[in-house]
Amino acid sequence: MKTLTNIPARRERGFTLIEIAIVLVIIGLLLGGVLQGQQLIENSRVKSATNDLNGIAAATFSYQDRYGRMPGDDNAGLTTANTNLVARGGSWADIPTGAYGNSNGILNAVAADVFAGTGEGGSFFTHLRAAGFITGDPSTALSAAVLPANPFGGLTGVTGETIDGNMAGTKICMSNVTGSAGIALDTQLDDGQPDSGRFRAFEDTTGTTVPGTAAASADTAYDENLVYTVCYRM
To answer: What is the pTM of this model?
Structure first.
């Protein structure tokens, strides 16, 4: 009878150093490609946000040149809701109930409501859309739904209230902005400092922090691990 006692055991073959090195190189290339792709996406969002901020500012100035009024603050003699602003000669589509201001020359949009889309802050975007300066439906009821989405998954709003102690004038604000994007935007549009100049950044713990309440003072330095609400004075 044959036995198996004399049959040598099979040796398990492991990876050679060359094979392990090749695998590590491939993993490194894949990780590098992923990181590079993420950076390209971030750069694209920053560029888009820059264009949005400058585009809204340009639309605002164009509206003022055409009508002599601030969008959102305009009433043009309007006394009834859900109709054209009468001074527009019927060229506008109907705007929703309450979507007009008091024509006092100031955008009465408080910082606490910057992402609510109500009052003159919401009417601001309604008027720009009705006049054809930005895209969107001007008949949308005043709410957060009238606010444009920004490239970072947050909202874009406006405020005329002084924020961060001394930043007056009309500001465009974006929520949910990453720290690295905030640095890039501030560097391109202002002085690179979150608490000075015409561009301010506030730590955004909820994704919708408003500069007049939850974050009364702008941060003193950027942190790439944080998320911010940023405001840019036109």
So the answer is: 0.80
